[in-house]
Every structure is written in structure tokens, then in C-alpha cells.
Amino acid sequence: MDITYLVVLVIALALFFDFTNGFHDTANAMATPIATGALKPKVAVALAAVLNLVGAFLSTEVAKTISGGLIKEGSGGVLISPEMIFAGLIGAIVWNMLTWLLGLPSSSSHALFGGLIGAALVGFGVGAIDGGVLLSKIILPALIAPFTAGLIAFVVTKLAYGLTRRYDKKPDGRSGFRYGQIFTSSLVALAHGTNDAQKTMGVITLTLVAVGMQDAGTGPQLWVVTVCALAIALGTYIGGWRIIKTLGRGLTEVKPAQGFAAEASTAATILASSHVGFALSTTQVASGSVIGSGLGRRGSEIRWGTVGRIGLGWLMTLPAAGAVGALAALVAQLGTVGVIADAVVGVGVILFIYLWSRRDEVGAHNAMSDVADSGHAVRITEPEKKVKRRDRVRQTAGSPGTETETGRQRGGGALPDSDATTTGDDK
Amino acid sequence: MNTVTSAVTAGAVLAAAAAAGVGVDWVAFLSVLVWAMTAAIVVVGLYALGVRMLIRGGRVPVVAPAEFTDAITVLSPAEARKAERKAEKAARKNPLTAGQKRLARLTAYACFGLCAGAVLFGIYLIVPALHGA
């Protein structure tokens, strides 16, 4: 096959991967402010998209290390061919689409590494993979990231609620945390932009160097930086609403002070990890923060089933993307016919997953609530049994605590100051 | 004694793992944990303190959600107004003198200012051109 066509194909796939990376990771920054209503869903994703676009132009350092490091890392000096990169990208994209369909936040970097490792396994055999590096650079950090972020989020959530807790039923002003959420989430989005778009820039540069269209050791060209920035920004704006739904309300119900604490922990952990030199996955840090903040707020529940599904997804990411990448590499070895077959099957799978997702579409309108609109018209009351007994006694002593009254006051939970029926929960 | 022995054993295992090149750089990991924990505690602590001081100073923040994301927390405009009135009422009942209130408000603004500084420092860390990496 003419090498130019292959390069064009790889660049197109790399940009599509960048796009999936964008919508996969919108949730990391924006799930909690959307969940608490700090930002309107569309405004939140637009803000994240702009920050990702800006972030992508801010730095190309990571792209340089990736385009330099992958060649050495993948196969100990063996040059990775464009066919390998092509196969690896197919593995990464298919896994990203599948996890999006299932609404699982999973690391796009791990999917990319998995796909490339799978392709390298087929191309160069088991010897190409350094098991020790794999364990210390990818698997152990993946275990550590959520626990680190979770611990930090737990502590600062306790702190935030402790400092604003009032026992005299006067307004605690916790709805004021909504403003703070906007800033911490924006930091996470900007940090994401400076990192993630560069992975794709690195892959494209690596390909251009591999076929001799660019000198080795040079950074990504301006057009590469521009298209990668646009692709990730577009992906971010489209928004992975399924994943936003999972992070925003699937793990636990997020309140303003809790969301602020979670996003502050995410930003702090990511910035610390990128400056002290212990790389952690943004997705895993963000998920850990949400879980930790849920554990830190009194009266919140963690849906451990969802946590388990996400954890399983993380364990599966590397081998699954690797298996698809290996399969694609195997077919690609047939030559031009193989590459075309790969491309056709890959596009077919992507289309199939997209069409499948249309069966139960999740978008800005229903990511957080299927019934929010009807809630405006119908006053929803909570069952009486949810109110603890001592509160019911207090309620009947104080004011006529009809069921409607209870529901309305519980309904005011978004504004903590209308919280007359205390159930011991933090709002 | 037992704990000391097991700690030593664990340390030996970790050292062996590190020597074999499969371990994690625990020093780097611990410094990430310490830095991140410190930064998060400072930012969240200051913001929470700011909110608390604002209330003490007679300004209760009432921020209605931009969009009603959950049927349980749906608020009508009338309910939001009611919440604001309640906040005003609580602010009027404040037992502090005018000077104390002003001091509390100034403390609150100082807290928020420091938080803004922390965000700017975050941007400084994110943008390589600023910290010269």
C-alpha cells in the first residue's frame, strides 16, 4: 500500500481517538458542577471545551516525550511501524467507545497504551513488553490513584462540612460552594487540555517520524497541534453524557460543598502528580475523589455496585484494548487488504456502538434527571418513613408536619437554609 | 516486637521489589500525597471558612442551582425567594456589633482572596511557559 494513504488513515484514526478522549473525559471536570447545578450542562461542557482547546496550545512537552518514549518503550529500540500504530489506535478507540456505551469512566491513556502494547505483541513477540515497566508505570499507579484522591477528598469533605455545620438550624450557606465549584472544575479541565491532546499529537508525530516525513527529535508541527486541539475540544463539547451521568449521580448524590471538595482534591492530586513526577490518570483520580467525598458527607450513600463495575472496567482496559489491538495487528500483517479490512471492520464497530447507543440516548437534557422537568409541575414528596422518628416528633411538636410539608422542605435541600427537617444528613 | 518484625519484612519486600524494578517510587508517591493533601486542605478550608465568616458577617450566600438537575431538589422561584428571605432574617438577628460584622466580612473576603490566589497558582503550575519548564 502507498505509505501516504496509510499515514492519512493513521492521522484520521488518531484524531478520532482524540475526539473519543475528549468526550470520555468531560465528566472528570464537569460531572460534579452539572450534578449540583453550579453550571448548566451545556455551559459546563462549553467551558470545558474552551479550556481544553486553550490547554492544548499551552504546552507540547508531553507530546515530545511521548513521540520519543514510545519507540523505546514499546519494543526496546525496534521501530514501531505505522501499521502497528494503526492497529493500536483501533484497539484504543473500540475500547473507548464500548466503555462510553456502558457509561464507565476509564482511562483513555490506558486504552491507548493497551492497544499499542497489543499491536507490539503481535509485531515483535512477548519480548517487546517490559513486564516490570508495565507494572510500575501503569498497573500500580492505577491502583494507587483512586485511593490517594479518595483519601484526600474524604478528609477535605469532612473539613468543608465541619467548618460550615450549624446546630441552630440557621442557614449554613453551603449553596455558596457552587461558585467555588466553577473554578476548581475549570482547573481540572485546563490541566486535562495540557495533557491529553498531546498524547494524540505524540502519536501523529511518531507516525510522521516513522515514515520519514518529519525529522526525528523534533516537536509536533503547528497543524498537528491545531487539529488535535480542535478534535479534543469538539469531543469535550459533545460531552460523554453517559459518563457524566455515572460520575455525577451514579456513584453517589453530589451536593455543592461535596462537589467543591471532590474537584479541589482532583485538581490538587493531578497538579501534584504532574509536578512531583508520579503520573496518575485523571479519570481514576476524579472517580476516586467523587467516591471519597461521598464517604465524607454524612447521610450520603455510595453505590458500591457501580464502583465495582468501574473498577472492573479499569482492570479490563489494558488487556481488552490490547486484545483488539493485537487482533487488528494480526489482520494488518496481511498487507493492504488487511489494513482495509481493519478499517472497514473498525468503522463498522464504531457505527454499531453509536447506533446501539441511540436506543437509550443520554444527553444534556436527561443526564442528571429523567424527571426534573416534570418535577417543576408535580411536587414530589418523599415517603414519610425516610424521616427519622425523632425528627418526626420534633416536627409535630413544632409545626403541622403534613406529608406535603415534609416533601417540600426536603425538596428545598438544594438550598440548605430551607432545611427545617434535619435528618442528620449534610446537604 | 511482632509489628516491628513485620514492618521490617514489608520494608525488605518493598526494597527487593524496588531493586527488581517492579516497585513504585514510594518517595515520589508520598510527596504527591502530602502536597495534594496540603493544597486541598488549604483551598477547601479557606473557602469553607470564607462561607462561615460571610454568614457571621451577616451575608448569607444563597446560590440557586443554575439548572434543576434532580426532581427531589427542584425549587420554584417562590421557594428560592423564601430561602433568601430566611437568610436575610437570620442575618438581621445577628448579635454581633457593626464592627465585628465588618471584621468577619473582611476575614471572609481575605479567605476568598487567598482561594483565588491558590487557583492562580494552579494555573501557574499548569502553564509551562509561566514556570519555565
From TrEMBL, chain A:
It comes from the Bacteria. Residues 382-427 are annotated as: Disordered. Keywords: Membrane, Phosphate transport, Transmembrane, Transmembrane helix, Transport. One of its GO terms (cellular component) is membrane. This is Phosphate transporter. It is a multi-pass membrane protein. It is found in: Membrane.
TrEMBL record, chain B:
It comes from the Bacteria. Keywords: Membrane, Transmembrane, Transmembrane helix. The chain crosses the membrane at residues 29-49, 106-127. This is Peptidase.
